[in-house]
Amino acid sequence: MCAGPPRVGQLRAVQPEHTDRTPGLASGTSSTLRTPSAVGVPSHSNPRSPAADGRFGGVQVSKRWGWAAIGVLLVGVWAACSDRTTGDKPVPTVKTTTTAKPAKPSATAAKAWYDDYDPAHFATDVRRSAKQAGVNPQLLMAILYAESYKPHDPKFERQWAEVDSNPAFGIANMHKAAFDETKRGRDFAKRKWEELPDNPALAIEAAAWHLHDLAKRLPAKRADLYTKDELLALGYNAGGGNMRIFARGRKAGPQAQSYLDKIHKYWPQSAEALKS
Predict the structure, then answer these.
(1) Cα(257)–Cα(264) distance, rounded to whole angstroms?
(2) Is 151 in contact with 128 (CB distance < 8 Å)?
(3) Residue 197: pLDDT over 90
(4) How confident is the model at residue 32 (pLDDT cuts 50, 70, 90)?
(5) How far apart are CA 237 and CA 231, in angstroms?
(6) pLDDT (tens digit, 9 = 90+) per residue, 158-195?
(7) Which region holds residue 170: left if phi is over 0, alpha if psi is between -120 and 50, else beta?
(8) What CA–CA distances, in Å, run from 161 to 168, 203, 205?
(9) Which of 54, 72, 71, 51 is nearest to 63 (CA)?
């Protein structure tokens, strides 16, 4: 709490006294001068001088300086109170709002090959492996389309293998016995059948060489019921023994014929896929 301004009674103690002349007295007769002791100020041994009487050259110097001192004192008191009053108030802060830049959309992750599976995506592998094995690339591509009836997600294939007594792996759906027999003496001889779900190129290579081996098992003399590619397709589905029977003129059963119908269905599409 700030102290108020000095009271008038307090100010008089510092005001100098001056001569009080009483009107009506005779000229040259002055009233008794008030001594400093009359106002509570101790008297000095020296006689009063103009400066001690508050006058200098007819101007009340000490009185003017006294009021100036009072003014300075009041300003100081006011400033102290003002600082104390405003000092406790928090200085307002200006909040700056920064507009966040929109995040750039992240690049879409590439889909796994089995999420959008199409045998045409592997046309290069089909052409290369078919050429190396000496088989018709259109037949190999048609077999891949015929074998695409189930998902080729590697995880799905492995889960399916847990309940299937004779599972087939890879995009060409090759059984373990056929793969192990086909890989002998080949560049992929050290590869394992369990790798097929994760490696489409290996599956295509193995399927091409399997067709190559089936072609070697065809009899020299064949009936005109099926073409060579149709017999190889039947052999891929029903096995080499049944293929030889069909080659001698026996008609394929319902299951084998259904597979051959798929080959016919995908034949034109396979030709187009090889152009990609």
Answers:
(1) 11
(2) no
(3) yes
(4) very low
(5) 10
(6) 998 999 999 999 999 999 999 999 999 999 999 999 99
(7) left
(8) 8, 17, 22
(9) 54
Residue 174: beta bridge partners?
Answer: 169
| 220: CB partners within 8 A, 6+ apart | none
Distance (Å, whole) CA 209 – CA 186: 9
24/42 Cα distance (integer angstroms): 31
Domain total in the chain: 2
Residue type for 187, please?
D
* Structure tokens given for 189: 């001889």
Q: Which residue has the tokens 């029977």?
A: 245
Domain extent, residue 74, equals 1-20+34-40+50-86
Reported as half-sphere exposure (CB side, CA atoms, 13 A), residue 237 has a value of 25
- With CA atoms as reference, report the closest residue to 205 among 187, 192, 190: 187
Instruction: Identify the three-state secondary structure at position 126.
Output: helix
Helix (H) / strand (E) containing 85:
helix 61-87
Same domain, 204 and 156: yes
Q: Over the stretch 62-113, which tens digit does the pLDDT of each residue have?
A: 555 555 556 656 555 555 555 444 444 454 554 544 454 544 544 556 789 9
Residue 11 CB coordination number (10 Å)? 14
On whether residue 236 sits in a domain, the answer given is yes
